[in-house]
Amino acid sequence: MNPTVFIIDDDPDQVALVTAQLERGRQFITKGFTRADRALEELRADPPDAIVCDLVMPELDGISFVRRVRELNRTVPVIIATARGTEGDAERALEAGATDFVTKPIEPRGLETRIRRALEQAPKEALLQNFTQAKFDPHAIIGKHPLMQQVRAFITSVGSVPQVSALLLGESGTGKNLVARGIHTASRAAGYRFVEVNCAALPASLLEAELFGYEKGAFTDARQAKKGLVEVADGGTLFLDEIGTMAPELQAKLLSFLESRSFRRLGSTREQSVTLRVVAATNVDLAGEVARGTFREDLYYRLNVASQVLPPLRAIRSDIPEIARHFVKRAAEYFAKPLPVIEADGEERLQRYEWPGNARELRNVVERSMIFSQGPSLRIVDLAPAVMPGVSAGADMLTLPRGLTLDEVESRYIEATLKQLDGNVQAAAEQLGVSRKVLWQRRKQHGLLTGRE
C-alpha cells in the first residue's frame, strides 16, 4: 500500500497544490488540512506515514504543531515548509522534533525525495525508540549484597519522579555512569537523550560554552551559533560527571540554571527553557569541599535532593565473583573467544584483594586475562600480579603514586632506570627500547640532564 501523507497549511490553494504534486506519480495517498488541530485529531485516530506542515499558521504554528505531534508519535516523519527559509527557522523546527525542512515554493521532485528518505529512516528510528524506552532492568546492576539492593531501589525511586536532581557519590570506578544511565532508563524520559559531560575534562570557559552554547560572534572563534549540551539533553537527562572539579564561577551559573531550568547562550539576550533531569557525580567529599569553601553550599544542597553512595568492591566482597563472571562473559564476546570459567581458587583470591580501582580495575584485569588466556578455564595467574599471593613491591619494582601525569610517570621511570643502571645511558636506552639520542631528548624534556651533558 502506498504511504499516507498529511498536508497541513492554512492556505487551501497551497494544500491543493502540494496534494496534486504528490499524487501525480501515484506513489502517495494524501490528506489535506487547513487547520492543524484537525490534523492532530486525525493523527490520534489514524496516524499517517509522514506529515508535511507549514511553519507559519494562525492558530497553531508549525513549531508548536511538531511538539504536539511528538507527544503523540515519536517517530512519524514531519517535514516543515516555509516561505522564509532562514537558518533560525530550520534550527527551531529541528529542535522541536521535525525530521526535515523545505522552502517554498516547494519543488515537487525534491519533496518526494525527502519524504522517501524519511520513510526509509522511520523504521530505524522506531527501533531506536523501542530500545531506549525499554524499562529499566534491575538485573543490569549486578550483585545480591544489601548495599547493591539499596542502589537498585534508589534507581527505581528516583526514576519514577520527573526531573528530580540526583547526586551520586563514591570512589572512582564504582559505576556512577551506569547508575546515572539506569535512572534515565527507569524514567519517562527514556526515549530522549542521555547526555554525559565530564566537568574535569575542560577548563571553565570551554565547559560553559559546551553546556550552554553560544551565538555567532560571542567570542573570537565563534563563527556560527552552536547549541549547548543543555539544549541537546532537553526532555532527557544531563549527567555531570566529576562535578566536584567545576570552577566556582561556573558553579554560580549552574545553580541559576538548576533553580529555573532556563539559561542564555553565550552572547545572547534570549532566555531559553528546557525540561530535563540533572544527575551529578563525584568521587570527592563534597561536604568537605563546602567546608573548605571550594564548592558552593547552595549548589551542594540543590544537587543533593536525592543522593546515593555507591559501595566500593571491598564492601561487597560476596558479589565480586558474580561481577567478575559478568566481565568474563562480556570479554569473551568482545574477543570472540570461548567462554572460560574462573577457577574456584581464583574467585577466592579475587575476593581477598582490596581493588582500589573498584569495578573498573576488575574489568581491566579480566579483559587483560582474556587476551592471554588459553583453554577452558581462567587461571589465577592470568588475573594479574595485583591479586597474586606473596607478590609485593621489591627492588625490581617501581611504585608510583596515583594522580601523576603521563609526563611525570615517564620522567620518574627514566630516572629510576638510570639509577638502577648506575647512570649508564647506553644501557638505559637499550633497556627502555629507544636510541641514545631519543633518550637524551626525553631527559632534556624532563630536566634530567646533568651539568656535563
Give the helices and strands, then pairings:
Layout (H helix, E strand, L loop, with lengths): L3 E5 L3 H12 L5 E5 L2 H10 L4 E5 L7 H11 L5 E5 L4 H10 L3 E4 L4 H25 L13 H14 L6 E4 L6 H10 L8 E5 L5 H9 L16 H4 L4 E5 L6 H13 L1 E2 L8 E2 L3 E6 L3 H7 L4 H7 L3 E3 L10 H16 L5 E2 L1 H9 L5 H15 L4 E2 L27 H15 L4 H8 L3 H10 L8
Parallel strand pairs: 1-2, 1-3, 3-4, 4-5, 6-11, 6-12, 7-8, 8-11, 13-14
Antiparallel strand pairs: 9-10
Helix pairs in contact: 2-3, 6-7, 10-12, 13-15
Organism: Longimicrobium terrae
GO molecular function, one term: sequence-specific DNA binding
Protein name: DNA-binding NtrC family response regulator
Describe the overall structure.
By secondary structure, the protein is of the alpha/beta class. The protein has four domains: about 5-130, Response regulator (Rossmann fold, 3-Layer(aba) Sandwich); about 140-310, Rossmann fold, CATH 3.40.50; about 315-385, Helicase, Ruva Protein, domain 3 (Orthogonal Bundle); about 395-453, Homeodomain-like (Arc Repressor Mutant, subunit A, Orthogonal Bundle). The chain is about 45% helix and about 10% strand. The protein is built from 18 helices and 14 strands. The chain has helices at about 10-25, 35-45, 60-70, 85-95, 110-130, 145-160, 175-185, 205-210, 230, 250-260, 285-290, 295-305, 320-335, 345-350, 360-370, 405-420, 425-430, 435-445; strands at about 5-10, 30-35, 50-55, 80, 100-105, 165-170, 195-200, 235-240, 260-265, 270-275, 275-280, 305-310, 340, 375-380. Helix 6 (about 145-160) packs across helix 7, helix 10 (about 250-260) crosses helix 12 and helix 13 (about 320-335) crosses helix 15. The longest helix is centred in the N-terminal third of the chain and has 25 residues, at about 110-130.
